[in-house]
Amino acid sequence: MKTTTAECFFPALAARGAPWAAALLLFASFITLGNQARADESLANQDDSKLAPALSLVDGGATEPPIELAQAAPAQAPAQAPAPATPAAWADTLTIGGHLEGGITGNPDATANQRNLGRLFDDHANVPVLNQLWGIIQRPLDPKATGWDFGFTVDAAFGTDARFLHVYNQFDHAINSSYQIALVEAYGLAHAPGVGAGGMDVKFGQFASPMSAETVDASQNSFYSHSYIFNFGVPFQHTGFLTTTHVTSVVDLYFGLDTGVNAWLGGSGGGLNNDTVIHGQTGFGLNLLEGNLTLVALSHIGPENPKRVFGTPANSGLRYLNDAVLVWKASDKLTFTTDANYIRDDLVNATGYGAAQYVAYTIDDIFTFVARAEVWRDNNGFFVASFQKPFDFIDSERGLPTSLGGAVGGGRTTYGALTLGVNIKPPVPKAIEGFVIRPELRFDDSLNGTKPFIAGTQGHQVTLAADFILPFSL
What we know:
By secondary structure, the chain is mostly beta strands. The protein contains four helices and 18 strands. Helix content is 6%, strand content 39%.
C-alpha cells in the first residue's frame, strides 16, 4: 500500500500523561531555533529531536538599502512598459532550489515516543522534527511549447519524512534512524507535438504519484498533516512512464506503465513484487470554465502484496487504487477541492474508501484560512496503521519482519477527521519568497465505536500542530 499490509497487529504501550505545555513551548522555540537537526535516535527509538536556529532577519541600519519584500507588498504600476520578452534558452530555465520544513504535533493524550495513529509524516507525538530538507534541480517543460521540448527533475529529501519516501531497495535500510535520506524523483520529460490538439507530455523514470489532492512535497500542500486518503489510499511513488495526451483544450488522457506502488527496478529477493509483473495507470482529466473547474480521475492496477508472505498467488491478486480530484476555483479568494477514493485488494479481500472536502479562503496577502473534512473507511482493518521504528513502514511494505509491536493497526474502523488551519505568509525578503507558517487543529474520531487511537484506548484523538516551510534557491 503506500497502502501498507498490516494484517498482524501487536499491542502498543499504554499511554502516559503527555507533556502538553512543553510540546507547545518546543514549537515556539523551534520557530526561532529552526535549522538544528536532531541527533540520530537510538535503536530503542527514543526521540529527543531538536531543530536549529532558522533564518533571522537582521536590521541593516539606516545606511543599508531597504529589504525588498516578496510577500504582502502593495501592488505598484511599473515605471515603464517592459520590453518584449525574448524566448529563454533551454539552460536559462534550469532551476536549483528546495525548502526546509520542520514542525511539531502536540497530542495531549500521547507520550513523547508514541506515534499518532492514522498519521505517517506527522506521526511523532509531542516532539519537534525536521520533516524535509528538500533539494531539487529541474528544467520543466515549456507550457506554451508547440514543438518538441525536453526537461527533467531530480529531487531528494533528508528528514523524518524520508522514511516513507523510499522506493524498495533504494537507500531504504541505509540509516537506522527516524532521520533518513531518500531519492524522491529522478525523471525525464518530453513534449511531443502532433498527438492530440495540444500534444503529448511524457514522464519517464522515478516520479511522485499524480493521485490524490495532496503530494509528497510539503510546499505544495495546505496542511501539515495529511488525509487518510493520501497516507493509505494512493501510492507515493512509481518507476516507469506516464503520458498525458492533451486531446482537446478540455480533455486530457493519462496512460502509464510502472513497477508498482512505491517500487523500483530489481528482483524479488527482498519481498518485492515487481520483477515479472507490469502495473498500469490510466485515467482522464477535464478542464472547464477556462480552467476554473478541473477534474482528474486516475486508476492504478497491479499486484502489490509481497511474494515472500503470500507466495506465488501474490502475482495473481490485484490491487485497484482509484482516486478522483475535483477543483473548483469559485473566485479569486475561494477554492473548493473534493478528493474521492476507493482501494481494493483481491488477494486479501480488503477494501478502503472515502472522501475528503477541502476549502481554502484567502483573507489577504498574509492569511489564508483552510479546512478539510474527511471520512475514510478501512473496511477490513488492512490499510491504516502506525509504525514505531524507523524501518517498520518499509519492512511492512516489503513483507519483511517488523519490530515487536512496531506495526499497530486500527482494526475495522470508519475514520472521521476535521482539520482547521491558517497559512501565514508574513512579509519576508525576496530571497525566501514563499515562507509560510501553518498552524492547525485536528479532530480524529472513530465513527463506528472502535478505539484505534492512543494505543487502542480511545475512540478519538485531538492534535494541535504547526510547521514552517522555508524555501531557498541557488
